Amino acid sequence: DEIPTVVGIFSAFGLVFSVSLFAWICCQRKSSKSNKTPPYKFVHVLKGVDIYPENLNSKKKFGADEKSEGKNKSVMPKNSLHLDLEKKDLNGNFPKTTPKIQSSPDLENLSPKHFAERKKDSVSPDSLKSINSLSSEDKQDKLGTLFFSLEYNFEKKAFVVNIKEARGLPAMDEQSMTSDPYIKMTILPEKKHKVKTRVLRKTLDPAFDETFTFYGIPYSQIQDLTLHFMILSFDRFSRDDVIGEVLMPLAGTELSEGRLLMDREIIKRNVRKSSGRGELLVSLCYQSTTNTLTVVVLKARHLPKSDVSGLSDPYVKVNLYHAKKRISKKKTHVKKCTPNAVFNELFVFDIPCEGLDDISIEFLVLDSDRGSRNEVIGRLTLGSSAEGTGGEHWKEICEYPRRQIAKWHVLCDG
């Protein structure tokens, strides 16, 4: 009788121990998941769907509070365009709410007169006046109008930008007489917050209705910021076409009373003059015995601003051509935020023919831009058919092989 009793006691203790261990492991996993910091600094709402498009560095962005960041990660209900993390029930679900931000179809019913009647909904009387006074001749020169809204959430310390739509864009595709527009937005002057909308195919009146929420921006710093919108048309086979830009300084903008609806005329992009492209110092040496060309990218100076946001992040791409066909390419490292970059990088190219008669080399100075195609700051070509200092430098290389010859060159339009 004693043996079954002992076995039963040990079995009971073993069962209790196993259940306790399993419960402890589950609690540890749950607590570790809840302590994770969300890997984003803004929330992108695309027509009611919660999206986190890219990870941004979270250490130096407007002094964001690390504790508040840990509360920002959640799932957005499909029927809501506003993220409110503190209105969850005990099960972690969001209550059903009605959207507060108007969708793009509602904007079609808003006339310029309606914008003018609401002081809160319009901060650009000059632009409204220009819209009302457009003639048929003026409309041909216009690049369209961008509609967007601004809002500040004091409870979350979040700055909210909703890109609603654009109207009257020009056709960038001459064959289909339409465009594939999308918008890139940057918060200046720090240029750390960069976002972009999705591409809408074959339309001149795109309705984006996309909301970007930027956390950790104090309301006192809103007046020092500027919004830069770049309107582009996607091109699958070449560089995207720039339709125009909108620059929106937030100085004098009052967001304490609620959401502001705004519209701005799209203007031509501020194109830099060719005389302000900067200069590039390169050194070349032709080794006739090994039939190689040594290229050293030394320095760049007086590079212009990449855009209205500030200094560029330059790097140099080196292309080797034989009979107008590119046969090799190299590139330097990126130098951050400087108009006077020092590269000091050496590249060796094998020449497929005897001599340099059919050889030319191209230097492209580009501005590195995360999340979009890099912009060409300037171009330099060295070869027998090159003009100016490029042709002279190439002639010296051919006349004096095995000698490293360095020269400064003025960059041309990209």
Identify the notable features of this structure and list them briefly.
414 residues, alpha+beta, Immunoglobulin-like, six-stranded antiparallel β-sheet, 7 helices, 18 strands, 34% strand, extended, calcium
Reconstruct the topology from this structure.
Elements: H1 2-34, E1 42-46, E2 49-51, H2 66-69, H3 104-107, H4 112-117, H5 125-132, H6 136-141, E3 145-153, E4 158-167, E5 181-188, E6 194-196, E7 207-215, E8 226-233, E9 241-249, E10 260-265, E11 279-287, E12 292-301, E13 314-322, E14 325-331, E15 341-350, E16 359-367, E17 375-383, H7 389-399, E18 405-410
Antiparallel strand pairs: 1-2, 1-7, 3-4, 3-10, 4-7, 5-6, 5-8, 8-9, 11-12, 11-18, 12-15, 13-14, 13-16, 16-17
